Amino acid sequence: MPLTDRARIATSAGSPLPGEAIWQAVSRDGTHPMQTERAVHLLPLPALADNYIWLLHDDNGQAIVVDPGQSAPVEHALIKHGWQLRAILLTHHHDDHIGGVAGLLANHPVPVYAPDDARIPSASVHVADRGHVRLAAPQVDFEVIAVPGHTRSHVAYYGAGVLFAGDTLFSLGCGRLFEGTPAQMLTSLDRLATLPGDTQLCCAHEYTVANGRFAQTVEPGNTALAARLAEVRRLRDNHQPSLPVSLASELATNPFLRIDVPAVIDWCRRHHQPPADRTARFACLRAAKDVFHA
Ligand code: ZN
Ligand code: FE
Fold this sequence. Notes:
The chain has 294 residues and is an alpha+beta fold. It has a domain at 10-207: 4-Layer Sandwich (Metallo-beta-lactamase, Chain A). Helix content is 32%, strand content 26%. The protein is built from 10 helices and 16 strands. The strands form 3 sheets. An 8-stranded mixed sheet has the order 1-2-3-4-5-6-7-8. The chain has a 6-stranded mixed sheet with strand order 9-10-11-12-15-16. Helix 6 packs antiparallel against helix 7. It starts with 6 loop residues before the first strand and ends with a helix. Bound molecules: zinc ion and fe (iii) ion. Residues 94, 96-97, 167, 204-205 line the site of fe (iii) ion (FE).
C-alpha cells in the first residue's frame, strides 16, 4: 500500500539518546486510514563537528540511513535500538556525507543509492532527477530531486512527508556554491520550496544559530524569524537538534527562500547595485553570507 505524502508529525514516546530527538511521521492512505496507517520515525545522529546523520525507521525496526559521514554513530544506534539497516541514501560526494559508507557495508550488505558521480564509488544504485527510491521495508517511496548548486550532482530525497536536503537547504540558510552557479542553486531551492508546507526538512548540518544571525541582519523586523531563532537557541542550550523543521517555517524565516519578499529586495538594494533580477538578488545574498561573521 503506497504511503501518501500527507503526514502528521509528533514527538515519539521513545527514549532518545542524549542530544537526540525522535520524531514520528504517521502517513495515511486516504481511502482506508485505519487499515493502512504506517509510521516512520526520524532520528538525527550528531556526527563529526556539526553533521547530522539521519536514521529513518519503521515500527518493525527496519531502518535506512542518509549521508553517513561516519559509521560508528550509526552502528551504535542500530545496536542500541535493535534496528536492521536496509539501505543507505547519499545526497552528494563530500566526505562528511559518505565517509562511513565503507564501514557500514562491511557489516550490512545493503544497497547504496546515490547520484551518478565517479566521486561516489560506493554507489550500487544510481538515482536521477524525478526517479524514485521505493523500499519495501521500511515501506517508503522517495522522489529524487536533482538540486545542483552546492555540488553539481547533489540530489535531495522527498517522501513520507520528509525531505532529506543534504547541504542544499539548511534551516535559515542554504549551502555554499562549491560547484554550481547562483542560477542553478536558486532553481534547486525554488523546487524544494514547492513541496507541501508540512514537509519535515532534514538538513545535514546544525548551522541554524549561525544562519539565523545572518538572516536577522537581512530581515531584522521578521517576527517569525525572531521567534524561530529564540526557539532554536533554547533547543541548542538544551543540547537538542534544531531539526527537523517544517518547510512552512522555513518559507517564513529563511532569507534564501524569501528573495521575492520586499524586505529582502530592500536589503539587496541597500547593500549592492539595484538588482536587475531575482538571480542577482540570490547571488548577492549568498555572497554576503559567505563573508558574514557573526
Ligand atoms: Zn557538502
Ligand atoms: Fe556537508
